[in-house]
Amino acid sequence: MKRIIFVFALFSIMLGSAQSSVDGYKYVIVPQKFDFLKKENQYQVNALTKFLFEKYNFKAVYANHLTTEVEENSCLALKADVKDNSNMFTTRLNVELTNCRGEVIFTSEEGKSKEKDFKTAYHDALRKAFKSVEELNYNYDPSISIVSSSRATATAPPAQASSVAPSRQQTTEQPKVVEKTENPVPVARKAGIKNDGVLYAQPVENGYQLVDSSPKVIFVLQKTSADNVYIIRDKNGMLTKKDGKWIAEYYEGGERIEEELKIKF
């Protein structure tokens, strides 16, 4: 009897932990095709997956129809996957949710079906697996979002300016004479790495997104026909590999910036 109570208590703790972590994400991304299927939305498994997430209060979107909010920061979303552990006699499915760092934060109980028809079996097993999703009682809470927590540090109020009046000696300082040059040539400002560390490349459609350890999306890269050359989206710039180093060149506020990035693919 004590063993049963202990197991139930442990399951309740694990379920509560999963719920709190899942509540920090605003969207669930559903792929057009799961690995165990031969083509997109075969047997309507992907459509049913999206429908069931929406049934249990999630905002589900297909991977090829992302919202602008998710495209700008993929860490607002969880990626859904369905794992097939079936054998000859039983269809067995699990639902997994993975965050933008590739960490699996939720795995459902296994849904089982002994139906012989493929579509019927997959739908039956999937609905049973989603019982665990229903028990999460999901409700988006932006206060525990990993995105909002990272932005909080980035938007800290600036320090108050000193109210001490300048001395007479300072106010009487002679102005510096700046010599004018004809046709000045703009020079790129060389900047250090914005996140003071490694950026992690996460695959997205047609390229990668580079995130720091917060995680915050720093750049979105789009592939080109050349190796080791990427377009920096929304920055009017390029990322190229020169002498073994990744160099980003782009415009910010009308100023051309050049910086070396440490990237882990």
What does this structure look like?
It comes from Sinomicrobium weinanense. The protein has 265 residues and is an alpha+beta fold. The chain has two domains: 20-144, Rossmann fold (3-Layer(aba) Sandwich); 190-264, no CATH class. It is 26% helix and 31% strand. It contains six helices and 14 strands. Helix 2 (45-55) runs parallel beside helix 4. Mean pLDDT is 78; it is low at 2-20, 148-172 and 177-195.
- What is the helical fraction, as a range of percent? 25-40%
Q: How do the helices and strands follow one another from N- to C-terminus?
A: HEHEHEEEEHHHEEEEEEEE
Give the second-level CATH assignment, the architecture of the largest domain.
3-Layer(aba) Sandwich
The total beta strand count reads: 14
Looking at the structure, the CATH topology of the largest domain is Rossmann fold
Shape: elongated
Main sheet properties = 7 strands, mixed, barrel
Protein name: DUF4468 domain-containing protein
Keywords: Signal
Organism: Sinomicrobium weinanense
